[in-house]
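User: hey, got a sec? need MATE family efflux transporter folded
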Amino acid sequence: MTKDMTRGNPIKLILLFSIPLLIGNIFQQFYNMADTVIVGRTIGVTALAAVGATGSISFLVLGFVQGLTSGFSVITAQRFGAGDEAGVRRSFATSVLLSIASTAVVTTISVLGARPLLELMQTPSDIIDQSYAYIVCIFFGIGATVFFNLLSGIIRALGDSKTPLIFLIIACIVNIVLDFVLIVNVHMGVAGAAVATVAAQLLSGVCCLVYMFRRFSILKLKKSDWKFDPAFAWEHLRVALPMAFQFSITAIGVVVVQSVLNGFGSTSVAAFTAASKIDQVATQPLLSFGVAMATFTAQNYGAGHFHRIREGVKKCVVVTIAASILGAAVVIIFGGALTRLFVGNAAAEVISLSRTYLTAVSLFYWVLGLLFIFRNTMQGMGRALVPMSAGVTELVLRVVASFTLAKALGYLGVCLASPLAWIGAAVLLCIFYVRTMRTIPNEDEPAPPTTV
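Assistant: Yep! Here you go:
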């Protein structure tokens, strides 16, 4: 069930790997979006704003654990590309141990800090209680998020992007059903939406676990694989921690943007929330190409096939730009209609503000696509500090833009903060990519030691 990406046409492999990943990511967005749609249509615009106000905090914490587990799978993919089956098993076992420890720490900090952070962000008083009820349930379920992200990441590291798709589809259906049951029938309010999301992720993780041990003989761990080696653990952490902090650094900027946005009132928050959900679905092809590049690069880097990395990047850039133009056209044309899925026809101001966001942001999708390609390529080679540096750049630009442009342009200025941050980060990543490839041989040879 593994897929060796060190042989065959690079762009064909990347696209074939991306397609299931894209469908899976869209379904993941759908079951995240299901909370928002069902809350907005069954409880009301205020509840929609309450869930939306937690988006940046959720990204801050869940992005950290997602980056952490993604970093662990980079080492697994490199060992697989190098043909080191014992190394693959040891990497998997080490990743599990590190994930358990990190889950305990992150869950404790997040649950205790949820309410103070919402207050610090000046969450509107009419929605803060509902926001807290939602996000604290999500944080109590961080273990389910880590569980699924780690196992699905390991499966993808071995070249299988199809199986996580199946489990995400199942989770999406379960999440939607539970949303209706817990919100409409049990009357749990926004907390019901959070419980439904956690339960769906836990189910996906269990499915991954059962599948892995039945189909991947390479992952059948021995007692010796569980022996904790501090040096080998550090090899994982020195890649994973910068990736995790890169997500969190980006998320801090999003938290600042959310804080500025909160000052415009709950109507603007609701519009921004609905538009963000549409935006996240529209950019999934770009994200999928980036994730595919991470696995493709890691396997070929481990095998010493550097010319394939160069070829893969060049061709993926062309495909990404084409997908960006198409995605922008769709959201600009259909943005208003899509927003009505969240709020119905009554909230005319919400629909108008949502279209403003989608038009402003979609024009820069091509920049975001390039950012994903270069960031994930650098991560696949183990250069995790480079994306983190780009994340710092993104943070600074997003914070500065959100305050200055909000004063000058109002709500539109808040919408433009992210595109300006993408531009700065993408330029930096492009420069680092070119410099890094100059240090790597044009001809294939054993991979140099992984450095951050």
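Quick note: Residues 10-438 form one domain. Let me know if you need anything else on MATE family efflux transporter.
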